[in-house]
Fold these 3 entries.
Entry 1:
Amino acid sequence: MENTKLFKHFLKNTAMKIVICLDNTSFRKKILATAKSFVGDLKSVEITILHIIDEQLFYATTGYEVQLGEDLETESKELKKLCVHYLGVNIKYISEYGVPKLKIDEMLVQMDYDLLIAGTNSRYGIGERLVGSFAEHILRNSRKPVLIIPLKSDHES
């Protein structure tokens, strides 16, 4: 069996635990659609969505912290609805406050998962950085396989 067929055979016959790091980016639908197409062939899958609300957003506000907090909570609830729409009601949705890179590192150490999925919207020419700083951080620090979804099309710069 060639490598691709062997990999697909493994995926179809193995229960898999997937964590998807997701924020409220305009590309969230592309990440969810890609994840949906990836998990569609799996025999058994447990999906956890990890959404970190960036607490650094509160550092520059003066007097609007309550409204900002309410808006971010509302956005998180809408994001959860979108995740359910794409991936079904059996997902586990975790939303917490923190500095995203640090909080994700902290949470992933405590989680049991087989694959981590994230998106990147930074893409540069040959010889320059190929992924954004968040995706690069995940690639360097994850103890499990990572699927990075490029979010820009070939026509975008």
Note: Residues 65-87 form the longest helix (23 residues).
Entry 2:
Amino acid sequence: MKKHICFAVLFICAAVFTLAGAGDVFAHGVVYDQKLVGENTLRVTLRWSDPGRKETILITSMVPRSWKDIDIGYEVSNGGSDGNNGSNTRDINLNMFLRPVCIRLFDVNNYEKPIFKDIGGHYAESSIHHLHDAGIVNGKSDELFKPKDTVTRAEFMAMLVRAVKFADPGRLSKDGAARDDFKDISRHWARDYILAALGGGLVSGFDDGHGGKAFRPDNPVTVAEACTFISRAFNPRESRNGLYEKLKQDKWYSGTVKRIFDAEILNTKDEIYWNFNEEAPINRADCCVMLSRALSK
């Protein structure tokens, strides 16, 4: 009897842990929103990802790192909120930069501290930092990002939809997500993201064998699928017509994967190219590299 009880407790705990980790792509701490005001002004608002936090965020510096990159420094005041739920806004004159700009936040009192313990010095650190600060991705916990972990199709949809809405808040409206063609997402945590992507023409499903469609949300997303979804979402402009010896030919995804390389969302110097396989699952780090570059084009 005790063994059965122990097994039941362990099973319940495991289920709760799994569900709690299913949608772990929300950012933590300070993140930012952006809005184009007129033709040449970008309005950037720093806010808490947790609406329960009310401390005032003070913007202390805005430092250009290049013609496309801006570091925004902040610190947190313990004196309470200023009436705007702690948020703070600054305008950036875009005449000084190449568009679109890429913004990275840093706490001036902890400048050297990485947002996650396991990405310091990682090839994708800058991309992970970018997407985290934009509120698009988060870690597996407050301290770990686990860049080598694979990504499910549902998790990728959550990242992709947030990235698209960050770049263009008017896209993927709720009205466009009214169709519900997939039979395997009715109770899934990512249902709204998947339907938004479906309504925007970013995804298609699989034949479920019963005259309907399935999305297979918990399957790992492959490199080819990630390339396809990003190409549909961002319609990237190709800057070259390259030859890439490791890309497979005459596959359903061949043209799209080549386009991703020609648009420099991936390149032959990336770690993913070392053992390139379009049909293999993509990891969290490489997803961030691709989405960050797509947003920065």
Note: Strands lie at 30-37, 41-48, 56-64, 69-77, 88-93, 102-107, 206-207, 213-214.
Entry 3:
Amino acid sequence: MDKRICSVEECAAKVNGKGMCMKHYGRFHRTGSTSLLPKPVTICAVGGCEDTGGVRSGYCPNHWRTHGAPEHPCKGCGRPIRAYQRVYCSSACAPTKRSWSFVCQQCGLAFIRHKAQPRQFCSAGCAAAAKRTALRHALDTDASPEVILEAIRAQSIENDDGCWIWQHGFVNGYGVFYSSRRTGFVHRLALELTLGVALGKEQAHHICAVKVCVNPAHLQRTTALQNMGEMMLRRYYIGRIADLETALREVAPTHSLLDCQEVP
């Protein structure tokens, strides 16, 4: 087993060839010496500049742009310019972009685009404002309770029973609203605005038994226990009426009471 070490001083590596380790042997093969040769230092060719960093073609990065880069003529005026610049020497030589004028559908102001493709809004702010519903706008601007209630009614459809059927967003069958300051159920908001106080832990009970109704006249302030008791009692009566109708249909299928509408 060869235990010889490199002949170069202060090197204890194993010999690779000609009494030297692989590192020193490779260095000797490339440069003819086992010692590190000093790196050549190139100074910028511009007089008075002693910058040695990043020198290429004899110039430092700053002077290369004005001395070392190849030249080509400007497409506008023909004046020679350096390659690091664009095809035009200045904005005066660059051709003017064609523009199209549009009118923002939100703010009504005219704006200019450099593309012929039409655009509805002048900015992202106007686009976001256009997506806001009347209720959200009223809530974000701290409008009066009357204005907010009118916005709730505007976003609903009134049926024959006087219920305001909510049309925008639902959670668990109840209408919901979203704003930058709060989020909640619309029927609770309508009742709070009508009463002038926050419900807190109390609930807004639907007298009409229509979950999507947001008409404050069809809502009642109750506790959770009262609301649950009324719901269970209503379900009991609905089931009882259904059983009676089934029994009546077996005895008198053409009875006039069977022509009534279903209980909600």
Note: The CA atoms of residues 242 and 262 lie 9 Å apart.
